[in-house]
Amino acid sequence: MTSFSGSVFSVRKGKSQLHKWAERQVILCGTCLIVASVKDSLTGKMHILPLVGGKVEEVKRRQHCLMFSSAGSQAQTYFVNFDTLADYQRWHRQASKVVSQTVSLVDLSCYSLEVVPEYLFYSQDITHLNLRHNFMSLQGPEGLLNLPRFSQLKSLNLSHNRLGVFPECVCEILTLTELSLSCNSLQTVPVQIGNLQSLQTLSLDGNHLSSLPEELGGLSQLNSLGLSFNNFCHIPAVLERLSAVDKLAMAGNRVESLELCALARMSHLKNIDLRLNGLRCVKSESLEAVNQVTQMDLRDNCLDSLDLSSVCNLETLHCQRNQLGTLTLSGFTLRTLHASSNRLTTVNIYPVPNQLTHMDLSQNLLEYLPDWVCDCRKIEMLDVTHNLLSELPSRLLNSLSLRKLLAGNNRLQRVPDLLDHIPLEALDLQHNKLAELPESLFYKALNLKYLNVSANALESIPPSSQSEESLSTLQELYLTGNNLNENCGALLVGHQNLRVLHIAYNQLLSFPASKLSKLEQLEELNLSGNKLKTIPSTVSSCKRLHTLIAHSNHITVFPEILNLPEIKLVDLSCNELTEIQLPDSLPATLQELDLTGNSSLMLEHKTLNLFSHITTLKLDQKSTTTAGDSLSASTPWNHGYSEMSGQRNKLCVSVLAVDRFGDGMEACYGIFDGDRNEEVPRLLQCTMGDVLCEELQHSSVDNVYMCNTFLTSHRKLGMAGQKLGASALLCYIHHEPSDPGGYFNLTVANVGTCQAVLCRDGRPVPLSKVYSLENCTEEMERVKLSKAIITEDNKVSGVTCCSRLLGCSYLSPWVLPKPWVHTEPLCSQDEFLILGNRALFERVSYQEAVFTVQAVQDPRAAAKKLCSLAQSYGCKDNIEAVVVSLHISEDSCTCEPQVTTTEPRGPPPAPVHVSVTPGPTDPATLSSSSGIVSEFNSETSASEVGSEAGSTASDEHPSSGPASRPERRCSLHPATTLSHPGLFQRQPSSATFSSNQSDNGLDSDDEAPLEGVISNGSKLEVEVDIHCCAFQLRSGAPESHKDLDLEKRGSDYPNGKMRRQNSVVVSATNGCLLAVCGREITDLKKSPSTCSLFGKKLSNGSVVAPEDSHNLIEVALEAPKKKSGYFTAPAQQDPEDQLIVPPSLEQEVREQLRGQNTLVSENMGEPRSQFIT
């Protein structure tokens, strides 16, 4: 609706020259020109000039002047003189549109209005008024009581206004043809509704109505009546008189019993919608036929049997998600049958439904198909997936009408031979027990475009034709998870129209080069999980290829794919690449390149520069630590993750993964799925770990801190969370607060459809709750009671199928952010944890997911495999999976193995030179889901940094005897001797916990050397101030008897070499500050040695973190802290100063560290003087 704010112009009323020009405020509002006194503005005397049908003309005798005239015999005229040419042209243009209008539609929905704007009442020609989603009041001068002033109003929408009572004033607007009062908590409908004789559409959905007045039956023109989601227990008798209404829209009521004879009396009803009613029985007490009903929707009820044989003209039936064991129908006119997710063992339809074209019997208990199915002459689509079928009738497959057959997830051992040419276009036979396919499949089914035979036992595939010339039109072929070898490559050549080929997880040793070159139309190729050593160079002939996925092979040479003009995604992770030969320039289309898991791959700085434009680049670096070394210095778990965008243009999922979380042996993992939006998952990825950290400081009760974490994260979404939302899953591994060294617990919290599954003794243990309307009966009832409108696809207001999400605030109270919380004690039988989104677990069952991960040792490769399987099984959406490998001992012991060192303990502090060697399982790996993260792997773990070297704020007592470092012991296995209590590690006072501290946009092109970082072959030597402990995520109880020492290994401290300290800052994507010291972060940005550590910045500003990337400098110390967050330590003279050893004392410090540890009891508790350079 057009509205120009009031401006003051010279105005003259009427055409007579006797009228004088005067200054007036002029407003063009809707379809009216309003002229008012300047002094009193709109509160004074106003002149309203309706413009619809009138005239707007230029006055030639006066500059910048327009004449406005209304229509009709009582027409009035106003002359308005404008100050500038711009005003004149703008008003002329807009007024010309107004005078040509014939229908006036005003949309003021979602404006938080409490009254009807006054200016609307001067637009007498308004016919359509939308006031939906406001806070309208009935009383007042501008309340709804004034609506009858709209004398020409035909359509009025007052839904979602929380009125509480039916506004009787609308019954005085006799011109109404359409009225919507949905979701207003109405209890009754007044008898005055009978006045609206012109009413054709009445929407009363989402209220508390249980009856209707008899006067409603007098509305002879009413043809649409919405009564869904009310409190009706029976079909209102007044409907028998509404002869023009052809649809019974009563979904979401309380009708538990349906009598077909009552429907027979309502001869005008053709469409019956009784979804979500708790319907338990459908009675047919008489032999009277129900002739008029053609469509019935009985989804999501409690029916255990259904006999609709008396509904003889039924064309479409929806009865999904009941508990049906038997189903009996009339087949005279039946065209479409949807009966999935029941307990059907057979379906009885008589006579044979010769008009049937579409039938869905998936997710039932069918052991065989009824004979009448093969006799259907027009059936085009048949879905019998997830049943117990052991064979398919030959007559069915040879049907001359069947175009789409879905028979996956059954027990089929063979497919019948094809006798003649058939029109079949799509065939899905995945997850069966097939050892072979019919020899004539491809040259008898010439229209076949889609074939999925993944997860079978195929050792070969049939030829594409009987001769060299092939007529195949196959476009998509999925062969993943079979026993195929390289010989199948020759049989693929005939499918020259092939666009998508998935042949992952087979036994391919190679792919014939000459055969690949003939697949010129290929767009997507997945060769993962085979035994390939190379990808043929002839792949360059596939000019349309945009996706190449070949992870988990033995590929050593980078394929020649970067010259392809349309290449977008290349995944060569988990291979054996050593180097990459690159062209001079990369294609602009390349968006994602994954090279993680190639332990021998070394990239030059020039190569990294060439990759700089890629949106998502995932890399890691050569590892030299053995598995034993890695585990001994690591946490009892490590993780891997994978994300795939599928056929979407954007990735709307993200991952949070922290193997070392907090100030102890803890971990945090999370996944977030935004469905269609990427903003909310990214925000949650960056903030949720921070929020959990803060909440852990306030409560140790799992249900409390997890609920608060989700609610706070929900609030932090701000405006982005108003209309956008995401499913979220958060897993927190920790000790019991009362027993910090005892058993580990796993606390899981989730909203939406992300799920967590624990593998215990080889069996899946679901830990999460799926909050979707289809899967959760309690949530469905809650949403129904709050009177939400649930659409036919089971979505709240047609937006989301989830009843609990983070975000989507405008759907409150139907969609809530409160999570499901569950705590599971971990034991030695727990092998791994799988986190996945809805798309993953819709295609991969819990049991298959467990078997899949058990067969793959590397958690990253296991996560990759899960996503690849889901794609090959037909998933087109974003997929994400996180696999956490658990190494929990029988007593959850966190003791360290005994390691003797040659380094003596000494009281003087000194910076320690650390030579960092990257490892595959980083004890402090911190990863998120979009790019590269800066990760330094250090042999020095958090609990190994000794306070004797890292603290100068308290006195120490060197112990006598050899320089043996006491082991770190858990509470179940305490050390036999303790040297002295009260050791602590100082924390930098400037450290703050915020995701804003992460630097996501560092430049990787600068080449200034980094001071203190020495490149030495495959190692990265970094000078670290061990006084600078890692940023601790939360405060814990003081560990008064825990000796925090620095473990020294020969490979870590060559020749006992020590150097001056250089501060290093390393930031990671989720806000965890890992090694904070005084050096400015800008210095790191400029260094080629660390620029690649800071991750590849995505277009949305987030950073991806693979599990094993460039070396993580871990100087994370387990410093004992009070609940308040301060150390148990004597006050310092200047807490902002860094503790630096002056050059004159370096030699003394070195000698003392090599000497014997002697206990100096007289110095206990006295503050040590600070050394400042």
TrEMBL record:
Gene3D superfamilies: PPM-type phosphatase domain, Ribonuclease Inhibitor. Its main location: cytoplasm. It is an enzyme of class 3 (hydrolase). Signal peptide: none annotated. Residues 896-1012 are annotated as: Disordered. Keywords: Cytoplasm, Hydrolase, Leucine-rich repeat, Manganese, Membrane, Metal-binding, Nucleus, Phosphoprotein, Protein phosphatase, Repeat. Its EC number is 3.1.3.16. Residues 638-886 form the PPM-type phosphatase domain. It catalyses: O-phospho-L-threonyl-[protein] + H2O = L-threonyl-[protein] + phosphate. Its cofactor is Mn(2+). It is found in: Cytoplasm; Membrane; Nucleus. One of its GO terms (cellular component) is membrane. Residues 924-953, 986-1001 have a biased composition (Polar residues). The keyword Manganese applies. InterPro entries: Leu-rich_rpt, Leu-rich_rpt_typical-subtyp, LRR_dom_sf, LRR_domain-containing, LRR_R13L4/SHOC2-like, PPM-type-like_dom_sf, PPM-type_phosphatase-like_dom. It is a peripheral membrane protein. GO terms for molecular function: metal ion binding; protein serine/threonine phosphatase activity. Protein phosphatase involved in regulation of Akt and PKC signaling. Mediates dephosphorylation in the C-terminal domain hydrophobic motif of members of the AGC Ser/Thr protein kinase family; specifically acts on 'Ser-473' of AKT1, 'Ser-660' of PRKCB isoform beta-II and 'Ser-657' of PRKCA. Akt regulates the balance between cell survival and apoptosis through a cascade that primarily alters the function of transcription factors that regulate pro- and antiapoptotic genes. Dephosphorylation of 'Ser-473' of Akt triggers apoptosis and decreases cell proliferation. PANTHER family: PH DOMAIN AND LEUCINE RICH REPEAT PROTEIN PHOSPHATASE 1, PTHR48051. This is PH domain leucine-rich repeat-containing protein phosphatase 2. It comes from Dicentrarchus labrax.
